[in-house]
Amino acid sequence: MSFVSYLITGISLGSVYAIIALGYTMVYGIAKMLNFAHGDVIMVGGYIVFVTVSNLGVNPYVALLISMAACTVLGITIERVAYKPLRGTSPLAVLITAIGVSYLLQNLALLIFGADTKAFTSVVNVPNLELFDGQLTISGVTIVTVIACIIIMSALTLFVKKTKAGRAMQAVSEDRGAAQLMGINVNGTIALTFAIGSALAAVAGVLLCSAYPSLTPYTGSMPGIKAFVAAVFGGIGSIPGAMIGGILLGIIENLSKAYISSQLSDAIVFGVLIIVLLVRPTGILGKNIQEKV
Predict the structure, then answer these.
(1) Cβ of 3: how many Cβ atoms within 10 Å?
(2) Coil, strand or helix: which one is 131?
(3) What is the rounded distance in angstroms from the CA atom of residue 68 to the CA atom of residue 127?
(4) Are strands 129-131 and 136-138 parallel, antiparallel or unpaired?
(5) What is the pLDDT of residue 134?
(6) Is 137 helix (H, G, I), strand (E, B) or coil?
(7) What's the pLDDT tens digit per position in 1-31?
(8) Which of 73, 75, 187, 213 has its CB surrounded by the most CB atoms within 10 Å?
(9) Phi and psi at residue 143, in whole multiples of 5°?
(10) What is the Cα–Cα distance from 84 to 19, expressed in whole angstroms?
C-alpha cells in the first residue's frame, strides 16, 4: 500500500473514532460525566445488527435503524439507573460505576453470544472507487464512513445551535441551576444527550465492524478508549474538536502501524496525546470548551 492508501484508511478509522467521541464530548459537556461504558454500547449495536441480519434475515438498513433504537433505549436506561443518582457526587464514584456498567454489558454479551468471534458481514453495499487506473482503491466502507462522519458532525452542530433542544443543551451546559429556573427540563435534556450519543454509537459500531469484519463482547473496549482519547485530543466538549481529534488519531495510528510498528502503534497514540496535553492542556480546540456542546 502507498502512503496515500494508508492515509485514507487512517481517515476512515478516525471518522469512526470521531463518531464515537461525540458520545463522550456531549455527555461531558452537559452532565459533566465521562461515560466509559460508551464503548460497550458500540458492541451491543454491532450484535443487534449481526443477529437481525444473519439470523432473522432483516434488511441491513432496517437492522441499523433497529440497532439505533435499541441503543438509544439502552443509553437512556444507563443514564437513569446508573448515572442520574450520582450527579454531583465524587468523580471516582462515577468512574467506578461506569466500569461496572461496562463489565456488566460485556458479561451479558458473553453469556448470550459466547466468547467466540463472529464473522460480521458488511452492511455497506457501496462499490469500491478505483483511481489512477486502478493504482489507488478506496473501499466502499471507507467512502460511506467518511461521508457519514461529515454528515453527522454537520447535522449535530446545526441541531445544537439552531433547535430549541440544542439551545437547552447549551443552557444546561453553562449553568444547570439557571437553566432549571428558566423552565428547562434538565433531566430530559441530559437523557436526550445520552440518547443521541448511544444512537451514534450504534452507527459507529456497524461502520467499525463493516471495516474490520469481526465481533466479540470486547469489540467496543479499545475503540471506546481511543475515542475518549480523540475527544480529549480535540478538546473535550467541542463537536468540531471530536471530529478533528478522531481523524488525527486514526491517521497517527494507521501510519504508526505502517511505518513504525503495529505493536507500538497504541503507545505512540497515547504518547502523542500526552505531548499535546503538555502543550495545550485543554486540547486542540480547547478555546471552545466554554460552549461545552
Answers:
(1) 10
(2) strand
(3) 24
(4) antiparallel
(5) 67
(6) strand
(7) 578 888 999 999 999 999 999 888 888 878 7
(8) 75
(9) -60, -50
(10) 24
